[in-house]
Write a structure and sequence with these properties.
InterPro entries: Pyr_Knase (IPR001697), Pyrv/PenolPyrv_kinase-like_dom (IPR015813), Pyrv_kinase-like_dom_sf (IPR040442), Pyrv_Knase-like_insert_dom_sf (IPR011037), Pyrv_Knase_AS (IPR018209), Pyrv_Knase_brl (IPR015793), Pyrv_Knase_C (IPR015795), Pyrv_Knase_C_sf (IPR036918). By secondary structure, this protein is α/β, with parallel strands linked by helices. It has three domains: about 240 residues, TIM Barrel (Alpha-Beta Barrel); about 80 residues, M1 Pyruvate Kinase, Domain 3, CATH 2.40.33.10; about 120 residues, Pyruvate kinase, C-terminal domain (Pyruvate Kinase, Chain: A, domain 1). Helices cover about 35% and strands about 20% of the residues. The strands form four sheets. The protein has an eight-stranded parallel beta barrel with strand order 1-2-3-13-14-15-16-17, surrounded by seven helices. Strands 4-12-8-9-10-6-7 form a seven-stranded mixed beta sheet, with helices on one face. Strands 20-19-18-21-22 form a five-stranded mixed beta sheet. Helix 1 runs parallel beside helix 11 and helix 4 runs parallel beside helix 6.
Length: about 475
C-alpha cells in the first residue's frame, strides 16, 4: 500500500497568518492535512478568497482532493477593538458596553447589542475562553457594571461568554448569510455552523444554502448546553458534527467535556454521520516544536473513541510549527489505528432514512472482506452515499472511492478511511473496464496483481446509479 493509505483518521487544518502561501499549504498536505478550515471570525472576505484559491492551487499541484470548510462565526460575542491590551486584576471594576471600539479606558467594548439585556446581577461573564472572569454588579443605561474575579491580559476581539444565557442572537447572523453566499460562489465543500442549539438552526442554514441553489453539507458545531440536550435531533439533520470543545468547555464545566465528547461520537457513529473533534488538541505546538504527553493522549483517545477527523486551530493558523503539528497528528493517528484498542462494534442497524438496497450491499461487502482477505474496498459512487456508509463500519482495509464528480472526491476527504479518485468511467462493468480498473489499482494505489478487492457499485451504470451490487475481484485475473 502507498503511504497515504496508512492514516485513516482525517486531519482538518485551520488556515491563518502562519500559512499564507501556496508552498506552506503544500507542506501541510504532504504532512497529512485533508481538509482546510477558513475561520470567518477573523480576517476579511478578500483574505479568505485569496486563501481559498491558494488551497485549490496547492491541491491541484499535488493531485489531491483537499476539502475546504467555511466556518461561520455564528452568534459569537466578542470584545471590540481595544486601544491596547488591558491587564485586568482581581477586584477591578469594569464596564461592558455595546461599542465597536474602546473610547474610554474603563469601558470594555462588546460587539453584541443585547449584552445589557442578557445579564442580570450576579451573572458570570467569561472572556478569552474562560481565562478571565467577571461578576455582574449592576445593569444600568445599557451598560453592564462588573467586578473582575479572575484577572488576566485582555486583547481585542477575544470571545465573551455568558454561561446559562440563551442570548437573543439569531442562529444565522447577517454576516453568516454573507459568508454562505461566499461559500456557494467559491464552491466550498463544507459549511460549519457555530453555536447550534437545536435542529431548526441547522435547517435554517440549509435553507439559506438552498436559496442560492446549492447543496453544500452543513457541519453542526456543538458548543452550547442546549445542543447536548437536543443531541439526537441535531445529528439527524446535520451532515456532519464538530465537537467544538472550546466554547463547550466554557458553557459547561470543563470536567464534563470528555464525557460529552464520547457521547457525541457514539451517537454520530450510531446515526452514521461523520464527526470531528476540535480545539486545543496540540495547543502547546503553537509555540513549541513537540506536544505535551497529555495532548498526545487527548488526540489518541479521540481517535480510539471513533472520531472521523481531528482538527487543528491555532496550531496551524498562527503557530510557529504548523507543519510539525500536522505531522505529529498524523503519527498519533497511525499509532492509534494500529492499537489493539482500535476496535469497533460491527452491529449494523438498518436505517429507514437510507435506501435498504444500499445498506444491504455495504453490510455484505464488509462481511466479504475477511472471507477473501481483501486488501481494499473499491467503491464506485456518484455522490458518495454508499462510501460514507461503508466508512461507518470502520473496515480494516482502505476504502478506495472512484467518483465521476470532483466535488464528491473533495467532500469525501473528510470521511474516515476513504481515499478518493476522480475517474470519468461510465457504462457497465465488463472485461474492458475490469482491465482499466486493474491498471488503476496497481499503478495508483499500490495494490498488486493477485490481491483481492471487494467492489460496490451500481448496475447497469457503474457509478451514476444507486449502489445495488457487490462482487469480489482478484486483480489481474
Amino acid at each position: 500500500m502507498k503511504s497515504e493509505f496508512f492514516k485513516r483518521t482525517k486531519i482538518v487544518a485551520t488556515i491563518g497568518p502562519a500559512v499564507d502561501n501556496e508552498q506552506a499549504i503544500c507542506e501541510l498536505i504532504k504532512a497529512g492535512a485533508n481538509v482546510f478550515r477558513l475561520n470567518t471570525s477573523h480576517g476579511t472576505m478578500e483574505d479568505h478568497r485569496a486563501k481559498f484559491k491558494m488551497i485549490r492551487k496547492a491541491s491541484d499541484k499535488l493531485n489531491t482532493y483537499s476539502a475546504i470548510m467555511v466556518d461561520l462565526q455564528g452568534p459569537k460575542i466578542r470584545v471590540g477593538n481595544l486601544k491596547s491590551e488591558i491587564e485586568l486584576k482581581n477586584g477591578q471594576k469594569v464596564v461592558f458596553e455595546h461599542k465597536a471600539e474602546q473610547d474610554e479606558t474603563d469601558i470594555i467594548p462588546v460587539d453584541y447589542e443585547g449584552i445589557s439585556k442578557d445579564v442580570t446581577k450576579d451573572s458570570k461573564i467569561l472572556l478569552d475562553d474562560g481565562k478571565i472572569a467577571a461578576t455582574v454588579d449592576e445593569v444600568k443605561d445599557n451598560k453592564v457594571f462588573a467586578t473582575i474575579t479572575n484577572g488576566g491580559i485582555l486583547k481585542s476581539r477575544k470571545g465573551l461568554n455568558i454561561p446559562g444565557s440563551t442570548a437573543s442572537l439569531a442562529a444565522v447572523t447577517q454576516k453568516d448569510v454573507e459568508y454562505i453566499k461566499f461559500a456557494v460562489d467559491m464552491g466550498a465543500d463544507y459549511i460549519a455552523l457555530s453555536f447550534v442549539r437545536q435542529k431548526e438552526d441547522v435547517l435554517l442554514a440549509k435553507k439559506y444554502i438552498n436559496d442560492y441553489s446549492a447543496n453544500i453539507p452543513v457541519i453542526a458545531k456543538l458548543e452550547k448546553p442546549q445542543a447536548i440536550e437536543n443531541l439526537k435531533e441535531i445529528i439527524s439533520v446535520a451532515d456532519c458534527i464538530m465537537v467544538a470543545r472550546g466554547d463547550l468547555g466554557i458553557e459547561l464545566s470543563p470536567v464534563e467535556v470528555p464525557i460529552c465528547q464520547k457521547l457525541i461520537i457514539r451517537e454520530c457513529n450510531k446515526q452514521k454521520k461523520p464527526v470531528i473533534v476540535a480545539t486545543q488538541m496540540l495547543e502547546s505546538m503553537i509555540c513549541e516544536p513537540i506536544p505535551t504527553r497529555a495532548e498526545v493522549s487527548d488526540v489518541a483517545n479521540a481517535i480510539i473513541d471513533g472520531a472521523d477527523a481531528v482538527m487543528l486551530s491555532g496550531e496551524t493558523s498562527v503557530g510557529k510549527f504548523a507543519t510539525q503539528a500536522v505531522q505529529t497528528m498524523s503519527k498519533i493517528a497511525r499509532e492509534s489505528e494500529s492499537s489493539v484498542f482500535y476496535k469497533f462494534d460491527k452491529d449494523f442497524e438498518m436505517s429507514e432514512d437510507m435506501a435498504l438496497t444500499r445498506q444491504a450491499v455495504v453490510f455484505g461487502a464488509d462481511k466479504m472482506l475477511k472471507y477473501v482477505n481483501a486488501k481494499a474496498v473499491l467503491s464506485f459512487s456518484h455522490f458518495g452515499y454508499s462510501t460514507r456508509l461503508m466508512s461507518k463500519l470502520k473496515p480494516s482495509v482502505p476504502i478506495i472511492l472512484v467518483s465521476d464528480l470532483e466535488e464528491t472526491c473533495r467532500k469525501m476527504s473528510l470521511v474516515w478511511g476513504v481515499y478518493p479518485f476522480f475517474k470519468k468511467w461510465g457504462g457497465v462493468l465488463d472485461q474492458d473496464l475490469l482491465l482499466r480498473i486493474d491498471e488503476f489499482l496497481i499503478n495508483e494505489t499500490g495494490l498488486k496483481k493477485g490481491d483481492y478487492v471487494v467492489i460496490t457499485a451500481s448496475a447497469p451504470n457503474l457509478i451514476t446509479g444507486r449502489t445495488n451490487f457487490v462482487r469480489v475481484h482478484k486483480i489481474g485475473t
